[in-house]
Amino acid sequence: QVQLVESGGGLVQPGGSLRLSCIVSGFTFSTTWMRWYRQAPGKEREWVAFISSRGYTTSYAESVKGRFTISRDNAKNTMYLEMNTLKPEDTAVYYCYVQVRSIDYWGQGTQVTVSS
After folding, report:
1. DSSP assignment letter at 27
2. Contact (CB, 8 A) for 57 and 67
3. Of 24, 53, 109, 114, which sits 20 to 30 A from 101 (CA to CA)?
4. What does the pLDDT look like over 11-52, one tens digit per residue?
């Protein structure tokens, strides 16, 4: 049974930082590509970042490039999203995502609110 559990969200002031975590189980994490998505109030869910199975390849949405860093620890079955220089427009629920045997799986999400 595939499970994805995000944590690390919260309220932060503009310019601040947060680190999100996604702990996974039920599949072979070390051989699977992973992604982060987010959904702001009243908007569609959007892709944020991608990481290859061993972490050698990453990519980012233009809106977060240079501020966010995706990483993973395959020994801990955990993916991370380091978010710096946060802006109010980064406010959203953040989800980790994986596709396993052509089936899409999402975590429950973690709320990030950037506000003074």
Report:
1. S
2. no
3. 109
4. 999 999 999 999 999 999 999 999 999 999 999 999 999 999
- Residue of 24, 29, 23, 76 whose CA lies nearest to 52: 29
The answer to whether residues 104 and 97 touch, using CB atoms and an 8 Å cutoff, is yes
Contact 116, 20 (CB under 8 A): no
Q: Compute the half-sphere exposure of residue 90: CA atoms within 13 Å on the CB side of its CA.
A: 30
**Dihedrals φ, ψ of 51, to 5°?**
-140, 135
Rounded Cα gap, residues 68 and 27, in angstroms: 26
What tokens appear for 55 in the block? 């972490």
Check residue 29 and report its DSSP letter: G
d(CA 14, CA 46): 21
